[in-house]
Amino acid sequence: MNLYEVTKRIIDVVGAIGGVILFFPLLIGGAIWVKLVSPNGPVFADIPDRVGKNKKPFRMLKFRSMVPNGYEYLKNNYPELHKKYMENNYKLSAEEDPRLLKGAKIIRKLSIDEMPQFFNVLVGDMSIVGPRAYYFFEIDEQLVKYPEAAQYLDGALRVKPGITGLWQVSGRSEVGFVDRVKLDAIYAGKKSILFDLLIILKTPFVVISGKGAF
């Protein structure tokens, strides 16, 4: 490991421990909220593995904000919305998504559902700052639609995905796939602790504003 990687890992560990301590009430509150509004499902979302550094798979921890087996629920009960979901890059607005639990819109807007990812950082699967943690199927399907993104993807996947990152503070869900991967590749190429700190400082304002959340 070079000096940048060592320094970044120290920041990750210190930041993750600090995040768990600082947001401990929200972590406990988030787990209690899930069990109160949806007692029959797990606390954490049962989602496919994400793509980690050098395409290594890992399970990203998120509080569950949907009904159990949300995809099948949408597909079997709301065929028109399911079609829209598939055509819109696996997205539905919070106002129209019938899978969301009571209160999930606020939980997502404030990124409380993402807070368990501090534990992903502690075990080394993620970093505080890094690219988006893509799904494997998401990459495969998006590259069919946008083959021009391939030129940026290898660079983006050379580093650990992050809780926050350049694309996250540049619009989140408002940023299209090609621009998102391009931003991730730009970040991965910089390898700058100062750049990481600037992104960390910008993140609270993005979270509070809810810009790009869905």
Automatic annotation (TrEMBL):
Residue span(s) of domain Bacterial sugar transferase: 8-208
Subcellular location(s) per record: Cell membrane
A GO-annotated cellular component: plasma membrane
Molecular function in Gene Ontology: phosphotransferase activity, for other substituted phosphate groups
Keywords associated with the record: Cell membrane, Membrane, Transferase, Transmembrane, Transmembrane helix
Name of the protein this chain belongs to: Sugar transferase
Keyword Cell membrane: yes
Highest taxon in the source lineage: Bacteria
A Pfam family per the record: Bac_transf
Keyword Cell membrane part of the UniProt annotation: yes
Transmembrane residue ranges: 12-34
Signal peptide from the UniProt entry: none
Stated family: Belongs to the bacterial sugar transferase family.
